[in-house]
Please model this.
Amino acid sequence: MTAAGRSGDDPKGRDRRPAPGSRPLKLDIECFNAVSGAGGEKHRVTINADLSWSMTTPHDAEAERIAMAFGSDASCVTHMARTVEAFCASVGVLTGAERVPLSVGRGGSWQVSQAYSIRACCRGTLFGSAGAAARHTRSPKHLALQHRVQLKHFKAFLDAAARMWGSWDTCPEFDPRLERLVREPRGVSDLWQAGIHPDDIPELAAVGSVVDEPLPLQFFLGLAYGNADRQWVREVLSHHPDADTAAWLAWLDEPQARAEPEAWGQWLSFGISKAHVLVAIDAGLEAEYVREVASSNGWSTSGVAAQFVKWANVGCALKAGHFHALKRHRVYSPQPSVRAIDSLCELVAQDRSGKVTASDERPDRTELAVMLEILGNRYAVVRALNHGVRTVDDLDAYVKNHE
Model:
């Protein structure tokens, strides 16, 4: 007898019919004839390839429903209908058409994202790799708990369905040319285990199309599970096409909110460390100042960029004029100190003479820090301030008159 299956809109996914190729799913499965799940003889169950996933079994579904209304045990049809609903809801995950969100936990471990984790199953569980976390989301236990069906029934159904679908853990067949897009050997299969379908790889690789070599696994994982905007990654890479940089960018936490792609690309192009790039971006340093200072002094952009970052690490945002002033006063290797700068700023704030504190033009931290490098100690800076010095450019005349 044919029983009605799930109703509703056509589900999303590559193939959400019960069997590959939009065919019906035919199973020989043990009869579920009681609430307890006690088994009976095997019989044929057919899940029809219609939008409602209607089910055909040898049972008289209507008679069994009437018997249940009078207190009989739950029928095989009832158990099977619930199991089919769970399978229909799970087939997208099982076949890789849908990706369960994962997040990186402590020490590089992986977790099923909070909204998709299940209490008494995987909530708070740390997995050793993205593949292990993704495999768990495809496990019978996880899916049975998620869809509230009996594990025994659901696992038996999955095992039977796998005879038509193939092993749920086996990577689907793919064009061998995909391997050229991923740096690591067996990269496509590893990405499949991590929840990324081979069909998704070309689209993800296109984000890094300006890179003229295969992209690392971490690049694909970052785009799939991280928070970096794909268009932002694409635009930054246009300024600095590099495979390892691509993977790094893909794992930054919402970097698009911190600066425009051009700024990221310019700082990356200077050849400084990625940690220094982050300092420059978060400090709002202007890349154009690096080029101006390097060009006017015949210095390397990487060396100048590193100097800008050194100052940013002590809370100072230098401009080109500050570097020109340092050069005029023959300070070629400044060593700014947070402690010394803090002490100077505190001394200036506590000045009792009124000459500095009364002024609306009191120098900011950056001006004071550069003055400190030029004059050598905080008391010399305070004396200069008391003589009307307010910017590093004022030091030219002051030093000449007080030598």
Notes: Residues 38 and 234 are 56 Å apart (CA to CA). The chain has three domains: 25-165, 176-257, 333-402. Residues 1-14, 34-38 have pLDDT under 50 and may be disordered.
